[in-house]
Model the fold of this input.
Amino acid sequence: MKKLLIGTAAIALTAGAAVAESHSDSLKMGVLLSFTGPIESLTPNMAAGAEMAISEASGDANFMDGMMVEPVRGDATCVDSAAATAAAERMVTSDGVAGIMGADCSGVTGAVLANVAVPNGIVMISPSATSPGLSTAEDNDLFFRTAPSDARQGEVLATILNEQGMSEVAVTYTNNDYGKGFADAFTAAFEEMGGTVTLSAAHEDGKADYSAEVGALASAGGDALVVLGYVDQGGAGVIQSALDTGAFDMFALGDGMIGDSLTERFGADLNGTIGTAPGSDNEGGAMFQEMASEAGIDGTSVYAGESYDAAALILLAMAASGSTDANEYKGSVMDVANAPGEQILPGELSKALQIIADGGEVDYQGATGVELVGPGEAAGSYQEFVVEDGELSSVGYR
Done:
């Protein structure tokens, strides 16, 4: 992290000098993530991933004639739509960002899209907003995401449980767009496979005591408790209460629960727990992890790769369209993300910019095997996790 921050600071200083000479010599990109709130342990690596891509393109002779790019961070909070909207408005009106990498949590992403991005004509590419509801949001073709919809993740998690012979489960989900959409998708898939959801109940984040929620879930029973919440908030609180009372000893977790703070808190008490998060087994993933490690970043952290890819797509779309105006470059995002074209992997943005400058086409694969479908979202694959000896381990991809 230290190396990247030093590099980012240097970019910022250079960009500042360029602004003094000519505003057209630099641009700013918003990095709107939840640096506080229920996923705050995940966002440092996400931001660092995005800023790696920004630093690659910044000042490249083939990027808008050597234009410098400066990242501008804003706190989306994950849960406070008003605060996220205010942060995005500052980015647009005060900082003059040309695009936004973010937001992260689905509820605040939807709020920023409706209240800031669409009215101001700003492209947003989210690395982690996974609510199925965002697939049909009114976006004027300005919104994309490098993470797949939870309509797919619900099916994947249900399939894993079914394969493990679990026929009855209880479900608890964080009471927002992400949690409700994920729970609905999981329940529909699990029941279609012949399973039974004994109870599907929301929980609120920020509570000190989840014994009432766990009591209701325990009364309903099940082979496992499916927790579709946040690793630094209510989801962890529910697990703690379930372990304290002995209500459940088997858990299945969605992507919002997959992070180092999970096993740091619970360790071997979660042995056997399974989980899913977006991820793919591709050449770019290994390359990104190596790049990140050299920069002092955890490239295996959930959504770090998707964040790198989101920032890279904005930059390549600008280059392909020859414009930093979102209403111009939004039409190039799908083009650079998909075939035909020469495949581009992490660390190859300079190569991509040269190809574009020479009149060629690129097929950006990036860290996560990017392919955008339908309304501009990732086709998506998922990494399967299990807790073994108190540590999260990857056991495959689906």
